[in-house]
Amino acid sequence: MAWKWLHRWLGLVAGTLALVLGITGAALSLDPLRNAWLAAPAAPGLSVATLAQRVQAQVPGLEEIRRLPSGMVVAFAFDGDQPQAWRIDPATGARLGAYQPSMLPRWLKNLHRSWLAGDAGRIGSAVLALAMLGLSVTGLTLLLRRMGGWRQLAGAVRGTLAQRLHVLTGRVLLLVLALSAITALWLSATTFGLVPLDAWPEPDVHSVPNGRPDLAPGQLPLLQRLRVQELRKLNLPAADDPQDSWQVSTGAGQGWVERYNGQTLAWQDATPAQRVQDWALLLHTGDGAWAWALLLGATGLSIVLFWTTGVLLWWQARRLAPRIADNSPLAQADTLLFVASEGGSTWGFAQALHAALVRAGRRVHSTGLEHFCAPPGVRQVLVLAATYGDGQAPAHAARALERIARTPAGAAPVAVLGFGDRQFPAYCAFAEALAQALRERGWPELLPLERIHQQSPQEFARWGEALAQVLGHTLVLDYRPRLPPMSELTLRSRQDFAGGAGDPAVILRLSLPQAGRRLPRFVAGDLLAIVAPGTAVPRYYSLASGTADGFAELCVRRRAGGLCSTFLHGLQPGDSVQAFVRPNPGFALAGGKAPLLLIGAGTGVAPLAGFIRGNARRRPMHLFYGARAPERDFFFGQELQDWQADGRLHSLHTAFSRAPGGGGHVQDALQRNAAQVGALLAGGAHVRVCGSRAMAHGVAQVLETLLAPLGLSLAQLKERGRYAEDLF
Ligand SMILES: Cc1cc2nc3c(=O)[nH]c(=O)nc-3n(C[C@H](O)[C@H](O)[C@H](O)COP(=O)(O)O)c2cc1C
């Protein structure tokens, strides 16, 4: 089912109307608070008989006593033909003041219940409650998909401010919202008589006058037995009807009592529907539970936040929605291009591929993977698929595997290209599952499965070359990433290094924008994308700081011919750059107290330095640092010493490969300290590795040898979220 589509349209249409329910509901939730504040509760053991006796003595013309859910006792009486209602002090029966049911105008309640439009409005409110339930269910489904299941539900939420607010409030308030919707539906059903509340007929009982006067309430056994805490309502027998009797209601049922001899004439237990009604009222209004009422009020207001952030997300998605030029109708296409994307970036690749194929003379039909099919005339089928959560499909393509399993294999060969991120244990797992399903179904293979890490344009171009070869065309894949809106960052300071491999390096500290477009929240290890003037493709640099540090810091090595690194090296304090943040959720540190084993070399030390800088809670962090020579590329050298002194860094091991007696490479330092590293791994340490692939390879070998005696492997660590690398 198209959950996202359903959620979006329910939100846009019903959500807009539900704003009124949310805001009025929040206002109405103030009433239980006020009632709890005004209530003078009865002493725990006080009997209904005693209460009735006290009130009768104080309130002339008494007809009825009610105990409201808040605990407030209210007496209703007639003074001549003037109805009166008083708040009562149960300890004395004295009048505390006139009772006013609500301080809120009546129309507010009517607006909430019926849009001020009687029964038609009531039906409208019920339909909206159903829509809210639909929104809660679709929202929860999308949330589970995005986070990768129940176990990850409480995990950190990344993304834009709107996304985070939408998901975070959703996580907290979804259940309350669903409960409000369900109880609203129940209350509507009882209002319309769909669920009859008065199941039993009233018993035909009456008092028999025997010439004696009425017994006092204190002489009635049923009232003596009942506690005020149980009481809902007590009706006194009418003075002008000698056959009338006492009638008492509690949560458990209602009873009739003879006025002259005190006998209980009848007792009816509450029906199951009445008991559900009690719960529904409590849960929906919060009357009698002021803390719950507060939460309900907050949930009502949260609808405004949900709506605003939801509309913002919809608008952002609309702006990113694919617009494929020259998209041939399915029936006329010779090449099919299916796309599975959650965040929209894969569509950017699809657009470039589509355009290149069209330029090569193909008639291409591009569409979402949920429409997978292969009519007879098709020559090739291409699938571009991103992976989410714990190796899952993007929401719109959740049923794609089932669809493939149902679709008879065609003659056209298929190529699958996966988009993902190596930080995730299930790297491109959905694309793998697709390729396997297609193979098992009997589709011929056009190209073996390829994977694109972090939307790399270079890797995509390489795959394009392989595709061009098998198709026998020249394909120029002109992929231009859709860039998110940029922020302007100004260089605050720079620290220059001679650098390791002959290329100079620099640590740049950039001020965060105070005006204009702010950067979304980021943490050390996230990526700062910089777009050098005159270029269209951003370059990504690991951040050595988080928002909390108040600046963005990068460590950049100048690469021969590198447009962006050369540009960055030319910056002077006061100069500015255009940048945006890309989250790197797989590499980010998970919370908790587990020790950290940080391993990095060269500029790869930057995010690790950022982790240590942000280690305010003094979690045990151990850094293995590889460089060439102390005077050339010991980035963050001074800070590391300071952090060690103030307890943010527990131990530092350096290896300088070009310094005499410097200790070789970082993996050699690991080997030398095998006992400490082994103990850390055995103690549940999390590992983060950042630097070149060659370094990571050497490090992995040493770690495997240290893990083996523990009965562990790197693959297992990765699976448990204990090992992640950020390589370049
Ligand atoms: C919340 C989240 C979860 C992700 N989970 C995975 C994953 O399990 N495996 C993987 O290879 N990539 C994962 N990725 C990376 C995305 O697949 C990758 O960034 C992809 O290029 C996004 O494409 P899209 O923008 O078209 O959705 C995840 C990204 C995010 C934001």
Summary keywords:
alpha/beta; 4 domains; 728 residues; 21 helices; elongated; binds flavin mononucleotide; Elongation Factor Tu (Ef-tu), domain 3; eight-stranded antiparallel sheet; six-stranded antiparallel sheet; single chain; Rossmann fold
Which class best fits the helix and strand makeup? Answer: alpha/beta
Envelope shape: elongated
Terminus-to-terminus distance? 39 Å
Bound compounds, each kind once, are: flavin mononucleotide
Poorly predicted sequence stretches spanning 5 or more consecutive residues: none
Which CATH architecture of the largest domain?
Answer: 3-Layer(aba) Sandwich
Radius of gyration: 36 Å
User: What does the largest sheet look like?
Assistant: 8 strands, antiparallel
Strand order of the largest sheet: 4-3-2-1-5-6-7-8
Q: State the CATH class of the largest domain.
A: Alpha Beta
Query: Helix amount, in percent?
Result: 25-40%
Total DSSP E strands: 24
Return the average pLDDT rounded to an integer: 91
Task: Kindly report the name of the CATH homologous superfamily of the largest domain.
Answer: Flavodoxin domain
Task: Indicate the CATH topology of the largest domain.
Answer: Rossmann fold
Query: Can you tell me the number of structural domains?
Result: 4
| Multimer state | single chain
Supply the number of helical segments: 21
> β content, as a range?
15-25%
